[in-house]
Amino acid sequence: METFKVKAFGAESSKADLKEMQIDRRTITPKDIEIEILYCGVCHSDLHTVRNDWGGTLYPAVPGHEIVGKVVRVGEQVTKLKVGDLAAVGCLVDSCRECESCKQDLEQYCLNGFIGTYNGNDKHLHKQTFGGYSEKVVVDEHFVLKVPKNLDLAAAAPLLCAGITTWSPLRHWKVGKGSKVAVVGLGGLGHMAIKLAKGLGAEVTLFSRSPSKIQDAKDLGADDVVISTDSEHMKSVKGKFDLIIDTVPYVHDVNPYVSTLSINGTLVLVGYLGDLTPMLNSVPMIMERKSVAGSVIGGIAETQELLDFCGEHNIVSEIEIIKMQDINKAYERMLKSDVRYRFVIDMASLKN
Fold it and tell me: Which of 250, 293, 256 is nearest to 273 (CA)?
């Protein structure tokens, strides 16, 4: 299959800094859309993949799955978008489209494995997919999303991962007016969870270890903040919450939060992958029919629903815009939690 070269930033190994390189993009098929990337959000998954924290990274690795841009070319069978339209690409660029999950618009749970925007398997080129730290991307129209024109494009980019990762559980557990929702952790995911839960009409509480986060959380829309290291404060919300969205990306004790769930309540993990330490105490779960669950991004239909909702309610991420050339410094700052609340790359800087 014919390809063309584009500029990108990627890493040659787990120990290497990201640097400018050339990558191949496929020429468009009849169902493809070619997008000039204007902005790309920076996700913790990008860093983990580049540094092979989860294993299985293919090199050179070009991350980035919070992509917003402009359509510059479309295949002859494309009906979804036209040249000049705003477009977005999230964490998925393909799936089998035939399994029961895909038939239910749950491509993120494709039983044959979805194809990630980066570090996946491009079935046209038969090599790894490359992400949004690049000039352009070519994606099947089914996996391209429409961006509401009223949204700030740079601030909309993190909706494609941080936004949908928190939106999907909010929708699955039917959060709405009168729901009592708590969020654990105030970072890229946590701040979006607060904004979206509030937008859906819920009463929203932040769990935080730091009193310094109180004002930030309330500025984002939280109704209350509970200091999780204060045992008396934790007791005051025992049995309160219908849903807790836990965004913490490292191992931590979830048992204290389970006690704050109401009967039939659910704590959903969206930030941490791995074994729980200490172990989960099943007593309150069994005696009060509480659940601990997990969730990952959303399908294409649900992601479009999120973008449309954000367009209607003017909800975007809180961001700091960086140049592509500053990505290695940004990664170091992310490790120190030194960002409020999401880095977004201005891809115009790649043209310099």
Answer: 250
